[in-house]
Structure formats: C-alpha cells, structure tokens
C-alpha cells in the first residue's frame, strides 16, 4: 500500500508500525506525545470537500462573514484529521488493524483558519473481553487561546 503525500503529515499508517506501543505497553493515564497543528483555509476546505460537505460556511469567506460565526469555520468532524495531524507515526492509535468500536464527542468552539490546535490524549483503561483487546481513551483539542474546540472519548479494539 502506498502512502498519500499531503506534505503536512504522514499518511502511511504501516510506516513505523513496529515502533508503536503494543497493547501490553499502553499505560492508562500516561499522556500521548503530541505536537501543535495550525489550520489553514486550504486544509479546512480540503477536509470539508473530502467529507462531501457543500456548506459555504467551510469554503466561502464572504458568505461565512454574514453568519453568526463571522467567518470560515472547520466542520466539527475536523477532530478526525487533527488526531492524526497532532500525533507522530509512532503513536499507538495509528496501529494498523485498530478498530473504532465507539466514540462520543462534544463540540464547544469552532476551529478556524489560523487556529493552532493542541491535543491532549491518553489511554484511560485497557482490558480484554472475549479474546479482544480494548483501550478506552480520551482526547481534548484546544486552540491557541486555551479554548476547548472539542473533547471526546473512544473505545478501540486493538490488534494482537
């Protein structure tokens, strides 16, 4: 499988797979290594387009200025891109074979072009059920002002 080159972050999830923590090495409560990521109008538009969004709030500055938001904002689901943009290829959440079993997200302030987003993430618990390895984790995304953009909790089934 060949990686898609975005110029922004690695999209080949098999790259460095051997360097990622195994299920046995995930420590509940330990913070994940993250890095800030700055959104641009182009990134927001590309993400929105890839998600099939047609709302001009994500593309058209003139239209967006007339809305209560006062300008372009990112679709709420931008946290999907941000989780990968804010972590390196060695992050355990990128392990090939990981299955998203469930998730719950809360959205607070919209992400905007020029926002530098920081993610805080950690495993909350890990357990085995019916021979499957589960990890419960949470993520909190904040902007450069310390405002929470969104926060959520997920349950993943980990590869062996």
Overview of the structural elements:
The longest helix has 10 residues, at 41-50. The chain contains 3 helices and 5 strands; from the N terminus they run βαααββββ. The protein has helices at 41-50, 61-65, 79-85; strands at residues 37-38, 99-107, 116-129, 132-142, 148-158. It has 160 residues and is of the alpha+beta class. It has a single domain (28-158), classed as Hotdog Thioesterase (Thiol Ester Dehydrase, Chain A). A 5-stranded antiparallel beta sheet has the order 1-3-4-5-2. It is elongated and about 55 Å long.
Global morphology: elongated
Strand content: 25-35%
Low-confidence stretches: 1-6
- CATH H-level superfamily title: Hotdog Thioesterase
Euclidean distance between termini CA atoms: 21 Å
CATH topology: Thiol Ester Dehydrase, Chain A
Structural class: alpha+beta
Q: What is the name of the CATH architecture?
A: Roll
Please compute the radius of gyration using only Cα atoms: 17 Å
Helix content: 10-25%
The major pleated sheet works out as: 5 strands, antiparallel
What's the total count of β strands? 5
Q: Which features does this protein show?
A:
elongated, alpha+beta, 160 residues, five-stranded antiparallel sheet, 3 helices, Thiol Ester Dehydrase, Chain A
Brief write-up:
This protein has 3 helices and 5 strands. The chain is of the alpha+beta class and 160 residues long.
């Amino acid at each position: 499988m060949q990686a898609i080159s975005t110029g922004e972050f690695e999209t080949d999830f098999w790259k460095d797979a051997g360097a990622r923590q195994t299920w046995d090495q995930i420590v509940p409560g330990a913070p994940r290594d993250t890095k800030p990521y700055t959104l641009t109008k182009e990134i927001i538009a590309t993400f929105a387009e890839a998600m099939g969004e047609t709302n001009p709030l994500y593309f058209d500055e003139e239209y967006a200025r007339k809305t209560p938001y006062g300008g372009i904002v990112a679709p709420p689901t931008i946290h999907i891109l941000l989780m990968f943009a804010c972590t390196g290829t060695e992050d355990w959440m990128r392990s090939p074979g990981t299955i998203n079993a469930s998730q719950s997200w809360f959205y607070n302030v919209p992400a905007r072009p020029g926002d530098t987003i920081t993610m805080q993430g950690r495993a909350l618990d890990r357990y085995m059920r019916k021979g499957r390895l589960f990890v419960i984790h949470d993520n909190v995304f904040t902007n450069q002002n310390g405002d929470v953009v969104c926060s959520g909790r997920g349950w993943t089934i980990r590869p062996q």
